[in-house]
């Protein structure tokens, strides 16, 4: 068929029968009768023809079959394609009413017809595979419209704008590579430029991006297949360049050279474009006009702001964060203390090393009020960087506390395990996980309450902040990213050597710290502390190379830092001991017994005693032992902890195993059970046998418990044969160096 049929002549058969062909009519009537019928025939619309075919079919299957026959009839499809939009919609509604034919099927058949007929009416090109596409020279501009050649050479209006794909941009976050098209355009009638927009490659072909990007001014023509023709025309008329945009921070090999990506692009001479979410756009390592030595002395000078047990972990975290994806770093540093102790200000000084604008605590990258999903993505994209999550405050209600604890547990556990949540794509395939790749620094008025989460953190209580020293550091924030940039440049210049050095030093520091902390410390504590010590080694080496510290000062700084971190590790062990499930269980049970809420009846029948009013009997006792009913005790302790928003994060079996290890529980002699069988009143009861002093609030002896390390306000260390208190750090060589820098009119004078 060279031309589409504009109309279909319809003649009604006698007696309303539409199943008679002309031969039947000739046989039953005469030729003149047939000629008479054709003489009064009238052009039928596609809708009228559908009515004539379908109106008497009541059976669904037969009606659907007749509708499909119409779509297989090329003259009928041609007539349907030539109708105006309103009449075509009415016909399609009839074809799909009470049939299995869908509107999508009709539209598909119409588009196939359009493609077939356009190939005969326009100057289409044909590809090597025989497929047709509109040649570029078949596109024209008419009356402010971009047009393609349509039926019978008639212009087919595609859009009132001209558009080009300027670049294919690949966004690389180190795990996923997502392609987007950067599109520019202009309105044809006025020549007004439309703003450049980036469209995901997967969304481009549907052309649904036009209105969200360019608004009502940009108009796509109406009609089936127009969007597809416009998409094809834009692609054929474009010659896009190819670009790579990095959507993460941190170390990356670009063009075969190791570099550190920040918002400015790259810390080396390698050209790289970096685009990150809004909260990470302050991460920029800009060198100031000061010397490298002055900048590094300013950074080390934060040790003068508070006792070393506070500032050494903070300084170590700043530089250890650069190695977050290399070692990897899996510790979370947690600063806690009462409101007004300058926790956030100290954290902001550390964060300002990655961008001077973040010296203001109101510009920190994230807070615990953010959603867990947002925090996960931030800690993933901020690769090899320090990220402060500010303002963990105790919630006012039990439900809010549980929600808050769940968020903290999810984020800290992911950081401690270096693992992200597994996700599935729409096709049910697994998407790459987004694990944390930064060092997370949290601040709050309280420490996390879950024991397993505390083991993944290093807890530092903030006290005794020197406000004068704090103000001095805040006075020249531009020096801090300069100091970090010097360390980054040193790593990029000798990347493989630094990686090998950091790993060997971490292993050695872990062994030394394990020996100093002793067997009572949690197995993760020595490794957590060692990671921060590697940060101290890193900055002290670069400071020595830059002339900020001589060899003796470098060694003294390392020694002071190591002793301070030992004290922090011991304090961590003490806090972990206090918050262990066994400690919580025994402390709560002892409190309930002391308050009279629970009662242990005398085991001796000769001793007559009545329980306190309202007390629940939880077991029996004698002079040496308490015999506790496990189910009753577990129920009461769980209820008491739930009131405070806490709970026992272990099963009864695991709890009793920990109590056995601490010798707070006596096992059955056969070793098969964690309790013992007690005969009471002629009946056997399985009970937990505990020393009575444990139930009276004195679990174990002091010698059996880990001694808390020196407090954060008065930790002692031995340096060069003398004992010094950490509060006296403001008089040591590091403090003196910092004061010399402050004594100048400006850092560059």
Tell me about this structure.
- The strands form nine sheets. Strands 10-9-8-11-15 form a five-stranded mixed β-sheet. A five-stranded parallel β-sheet has the order 17-18-21-16-22, sandwiched between helices. The chain has a five-stranded mixed β-sheet with strand order 23-24-25-27-26.
- The protein has 749 residues and is α/β, with parallel strands linked by helices.
- Strand 8 (161-172) and strand 9 form a beta hairpin.
- It contains 26 helices and 29 strands.
- Helix 12 (308-320) packs parallel to helix 13 (343-351) and helix 22 (581-595) packs across helix 23.
- The protein is 42% helix and 19% strand.
- Residues 1-18, 119-137, 700-731 and 741-749 have low confidence and may be disordered.
- It is flat, with a radius of gyration of 39 Å.
Kindly state the percentage of residues in helix: 40-55%
- Percent in strands: 15-25%
Oligomer: single chain
- Coarse shape: flat
Largest sheet: 5 strands, mixed
Structural class: alpha/beta
Number of helices: 26
How many strands appear in the DSSP assignment? 29
Which stretches are poorly predicted, pLDDT < 50 over at least 5 residues? 1-18, 119-137, 700-731, 741-749
Write the layout of secondary structure elements.
Layout: E1 8-10, H1 22-28, H2 31-39, E2 42-44, H3 46-54, H4 60-72, H5 74-82, H6 85-96, H7 103-121, E3 124-126, E4 132-134, E5 139-142, E6 145-149, E7 155-159, E8 161-172, E9 177-187, E10 193-200, H8 201-204, H9 210-214, H10 226-236, E11 241-246, E12 250-254, E13 257-262, E14 265-266, E15 273-274, H11 292-300, H12 308-320, E16 332-336, H13 343-351, E17 366-367, H14 372-381, E18 386-392, H15 398-417, E19 423-424, E20 430-431, E21 439-444, H16 451-454, E22 457-461, H17 467-475, H18 479-493, H19 495-517, H20 525-546, H21 551-578, H22 581-595, E23 598-602, E24 616-621, E25 625-628, H23 630-643, H24 652-661, E26 676-680, E27 683-691, H25 692-695, E28 716-719, E29 722-725, H26 733-743
Parallel strand pairs: 8-11, 11-15, 16-21, 16-22, 17-18, 18-21, 23-24
Antiparallel strand pairs: 1-2, 3-4, 5-6, 6-7, 8-9, 9-10, 12-13, 13-14, 19-20, 24-25, 25-27, 26-27, 28-29
